Amino acid sequence: MAVRPPQGGDDEPDTIEFGIAALNARLEETSVSFPATSEEIVAALDNSAIPYDAAGNTVDLSTALEQVPADRFDSESELLDQVHPVFETYRERTANSLVARLRGLLPF
């Protein structure tokens, strides 16, 4: 028995954005202008939860920005550069968890 291929004209593969890619996509949907403070960015994005890994685990933007040494960002690039290590720390913590290790052992 065979499974029919998906029908439709959408040739683009499904992608999962997380970390700074997800934050960048959300910033493009808002009217944030730089320079901006952490408070202004959180308000513009309605403190949305940003996924930090492909599994869909999230962190509130305000929580992530609290861990960044700067409170004011002159450009979007500066913001993304500053918050990237925070997302990586969350991702690494989750990847090293017991649940993540068990998932890695399962064949599906």
Write the layout of secondary structure elements.
Layout (H helix, E strand, L loop, with lengths): L19 H9 L7 E2 H7 L4 E3 L6 E3 H6 L5 E2 L2 H20 L2 H8 L3
Antiparallel strand pairs: 1-4, 2-3
Helix pairs in contact: 1-4
Low-pLDDT residue spans: none
Shape: elongated
Beta-strand percentage range? 5-15%
The percent of residues in helical segments reads: 40-55%
How far do the termini sit from each other? 21 Å
Element-level helix/strand string: HEHEEHEHH
Average predicted confidence as pLDDT: 83
Helix-strand category: mainly alpha
Total number of helices: 5
Q: Walk across the major sheet and give the strand order.
A: 1-4
Largest sheet: 2 strands, antiparallel
Describe this structure in words.
The chain contains 5 helices and 4 strands, in the order αβαββαβαα. It has helices spanning 20-28, 38-44, 61-66, 76-95, 98-105, and strands at 36-37, 49-51, 58-60, 72-73. The model has no long low-confidence stretch (mean pLDDT 83). The strands form 2 sheets. The chain has a two-stranded antiparallel sheet. Helix 1 packs across helix 4. With 108 residues, it is mostly helical. It has one domain (20-103). Helices cover 46% and strands 9% of the residues.
